[in-house]
Amino acid sequence: METLGQGRTVAVIGLGAMGYGMAASLRRGGFTVAAFDVRPEVTRRFAEEGGMAAPPSAQAAVAGAEWVVTVVVNADQTHALLFGEGGVATALQPGAVILSCATMAPERAREFAAAAARHGLAYLDCPISGGAQRAAEGALTVLASGAPEAMAKAEPVLQAMAAKIYRLGDEPGIGAAFKMVNQLLAGVHIAAASEAMVFAKRLGLDLRRVYEVITASAGNSWMFENRMPHVLDGDYTPRSAVDIFTKDLGIVSDMARGAKFPTPVASAALQMFLMTAAAGMGRDDDASVARLYASVSGIDLPGPP
Predict the structure, then answer these.
(1) How many other CB atoms are there within 10 angstroms of residue 130's CB atom?
(2) Are 61 and 55 in contact (CB under 8 A)?
(3) Which residues contact 153 (CB under 8 A, 6 or more apart)?
(4) Are 244 and 293 contained in the same domain?
(5) Could you give the CA distance from residue 66 to residue 117 in angstroms, rounded to a whole number?
(6) Dihedral class, residue 301 (left if φ above 0, else alpha if ψ from -120 to 50, else beta)
(7) 19-30 b/e with 16+ CB inside 10 Å = b?
(8) Residue numbers of the chain with a pLDDT score lower than 50
(9) 152 and 226 in a common domain
(10) What is the reported pLDDT for 5?
(11) Residue 156 is part of which domain span?
(12) Distance CA 178, CA 186 (A)
């Protein structure tokens, strides 16, 4: 039985925690994968593990690719990668499909789709969720929206990267809007989990028992279950950084203000992430919000302060 990729070429730009796993999943799916990251050593490592020879630039990576998956941090990086000086839009063959995975405001996704069309390219708004482990397993959740033709062309790539693909509409920006609802909840849940865990420490409870009990109880959340082991281990190596949520909850705040919709809980969570970043932990794991709570209350958590 043939694999989905059948040797066809897909470029992956951005080999962070998510992008690396996505590129590896595409390779397992039978695609020829040209991957590029601004860190040359990461690009070389992927090539050595079975990708194409390490390209010297993003433009070189997309040459001959039928699809390009962009896994960068935000809308500004997406714009620079696609349409800025040396952008890959001019190096892609007409009809190629851009799968844009960065979290961004819906209007930016619509802007990029229009710009891609002017270059004769298809654009799919497809933010992702699930974390680095699911990316490596090819088991992400994809929140996709875009023209039906783009969706159809992207189908084999999506199938190789995701366990769940939500096709949310024909207009770019719909997927982005769904992702922002997810990010509102994710940010609030991380902040709440951090608050609860440090509160438990103040009460003199065994934190590992707290984790055991809460993950089996109604107060559990995916973020509590996923992030609080970082606190238990005192390991704040960034899987997803604090700065990601200062960005994403900031977008939520901007969108809510534009819609004249109150988001007091999300706003409180945003302030906790901003304070954590201001305390010098912006590039650390987002569970570092717990360290901020511990710092202001004089509580010692496991591992480094």
Answers:
(1) 19
(2) yes
(3) 66, 67, 95, 97, 122
(4) yes
(5) 15
(6) beta
(7) bbbbbbbbbbbb
(8) 1-3
(9) no
(10) 55
(11) 9-171
(12) 12
pLDDT for the residue numbered 1 = 32
Question: How many residues appear in the chain?
Answer: 305
Q: Which residues are designated catalytic?
A: 179
CATH number assigned to the domain comprising residue 119: 3.40.50.720
Residue 106's pLDDT is 97
Greatest CA separation found in the chain? 63
CB 242 within 8 A of CB 284: yes
Residue carrying structure tokens 């699809």: 67
This prediction has a pTM of 0.92
Is residue 128 located within the same domain as residue 241?
no
In a 3-state reduction of DSSP, which class is residue 265?
helix
Q: What's the CA gap between 174 and 236, in Å, rounded?
A: 33
Dihedral sign (CA 90, 57, 3, 124): negative
10 Å CB burial of residue 51 (0-12, 13-18, 19+) is buried
Residue with tokens 């800025």: 84
**Tokens coding 202:** 């103040």
201 and 247 fall within a common domain: yes
Task: Summarize pLDDT for 281-301 with one digit per residue, the tens.
Answer: 999 999 999 999 999 999 999
Beta bridge partners of 9: 32
Residue 3 lies in a domain: no
Statement to judge: residues 32 and 156 lie in one domain: yes
Place of tokens 């302030």: 271
Q: What are phi and psi for residue 166, nearest 5 degrees?
A: -100, 115
* Spatial contact of 112 and 82, defined as CB atoms under 8 Å apart: yes
